[in-house]
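pipeline: protein-struct stage 2 | run 1193 | Poly(A) RNA polymerase mitochondrial-like central palm domain-containing protein
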Amino acid sequence: MMLTLSRFTFLPYAQASCGRGVLEMDSHNSLAIALNDILQVVNPTGDDWSTRFQVINDLKSVVQSVDILRGATVEPFGSFVSNLFTRWGDLDISIELPNGSYISTAGKKYKQTLLLDVLKALKGLGGFHGIKYISHARVPILKCDSNRGNISCDISINNLNGLMKSKLLFWVNAIDERFRAMVLIVKEWAKAHGINDSKTGTLNSYSLSLLIIFHFQTCEPAILPPLSEIYPGNMAADLTGVRAIAEKNIEDICGVNINRIKSDRTRMINSSSLADLFISFLEKFCDISLRALTQGISTHNGQWDDIDTNMRWQPKTYALFIEDPFEQPLNCARAVGQRNLHKIAQAFQSSHQKLTSANQIHPLAVLVRPEVLSIISRSLHAGAGIHGMNQLRTNPQVRTNPVGTFRTPTGPHLQTHVSQYQNRNGGSQTHRGPHPPTQGQQRYVYQNSPNNRVNQRPLPGSQSQSTSQSQDEVVSNNDVHKRNPNNGQSSQNAQVPPQRWRVRSEK
């Protein structure tokens, strides 16, 4: 018995039936369908959003119970804020200390002391388990798992840099929606190959996102510009003084530049499908271990940079250099050692070879972990396996947030949690199934603040219409994600004249 996958049934020699006759499918179409099915599974549902809102409120109660932290705010950042998290993604939390209207500063030892107080409160109040205190990291953190959905949380003190980086990644997605889809797919692929864990010396999710941005910058034609055209300065250095003013300045600069980029009529449009972009992504970094010997990745400039001539990167002490575009010259891939760099390169090489080989291998065998494959299998056809992949059918437990039987995309309304964060047009919006978050959810994530310190103006690229899509619109096999160069609105206050940007040639 064969399993119907999306609209097709996979047969030997890549034949498929879709109800309108038998079609000959090449490996590209097989990959496109597989990517669509992965997105259906890894995209957060309404329940996933709701659970994280509840966990944030639980952590607020914990922090408020600590006397020395009275007045502090609990603010999410990371993939939850950038809308790049999967159903099993962690939740990053920053406890921002009160300092009037000014950006608070605290030394590492003081942060370590405060996290110990939070640790005691977590143990005393309950609701969390697996509590671990990591004091000697560059940024001291407290790790714990919530009893609500087993959501893993990383808690830090005064991580405003992380919050702003998350906003900037969200705004990057406003330029081209394929960026978010690629991040979700690449995260799952990287986990399947064991290269998405900085604790074991491989790539963290932020580095993976930067690799995708770099790939989009160096496509022909380019999909994204160098990030210096969105924010030309060093964001981390500019976060000083009055918080509301500093954040607003960064937001205004990014808003003007993003609107300019989106409304640029001279912009060359790249209409590559998601499948094409994924294959070329793998191909681009097949030689990453060799190239990293002499060059580093700069998304700020949108090109490979020679390490020997970049004085900010001297001396070369890392196996791989992926510069943080918003906190230069910090290396986001500093945890990667030489041995793991070869492992990373091997994952790119083997995946590219298998997905482009004439030998018929199902793309899901390359792209997902066994537990995710099991979820796809159960969700598409109860009791049946994907043809040609029975040997991979397993029934493991997902470590974080076990999902059991796959839920259809009819998640509950989130009015209980987001009604107070209604969109500026007056109507509350809800989130169902594996679709992008509503404007109400987005505004909660990165605009709402108990002290109302964060600027409440509309975000760059936000529009009043609903962001919902049908499932078939997530990844279409025959209709690529095309971008209208006029779909953005030019800022009336923009003083920067339209500029034409092209991909920088690779060395």
